[in-house]
């Protein structure tokens, strides 16, 4: 919300989710619990209003979301954060922050909670 209290500059949603361990690259999967499905957090609908693009608000929103996901993982198990990129530009944005593609699901990326912990150490 902007200072006027009326304009939405950007937003995101987070929710509990699960990822099939077979969908995660093996180098990451070997570090996760050995269950068929592993608890994760889905970061959905991260968006910045066109009027506010180019001001690093997307990065700020992503960092806020990742920090909240990390804090939440202390209460509710979460192996990492999943995002569904809407296009190649969004994929590139998430990859800059260490997200890796899940090869079996198009435009879906994953960031292990351990990587997020290192960001905020």
- Strands, count: 5
Taking pLDDT < 50 over at least 5 consecutive residues as the criterion, the unreliable ranges are: none
SSE topology string: EHEHEHEEH
* Structure annotation, total helices: 4
Q: Can you give the mean pLDDT? A: 91
Structural shape? globular
Helix content: 25-40%
Short description:
With 121 residues, this protein is α+β, with helices and mostly antiparallel strands. It is built from four helices and five strands; from the N terminus they run βαβαβαββα. The protein has helices at 26-29, 57-73, 88-95, 113-119; strands spanning 10-20, 37-48, 80-84, 100-101, 108-112.
Structural summary, described in words:
The protein is α+β, with helices and mostly antiparallel strands and 121 residues long. The chain is built from 4 helices and 5 strands. It has helices at 26-29, 57-73, 88-95, 113-119; strands spanning 10-20, 37-48, 80-84, 100-101, 108-112. A 5-stranded mixed sheet has the order 1-2-3-5-4. The protein is globular and about 50 Å long.
Descriptors:
121 residues; alpha+beta; single chain; 5-stranded mixed beta sheet
Helices and strands in order, then pairings?
Elements: E1 10-20, H1 26-29, E2 37-48, H2 57-73, E3 80-84, H3 88-95, E4 100-101, E5 108-112, H4 113-119
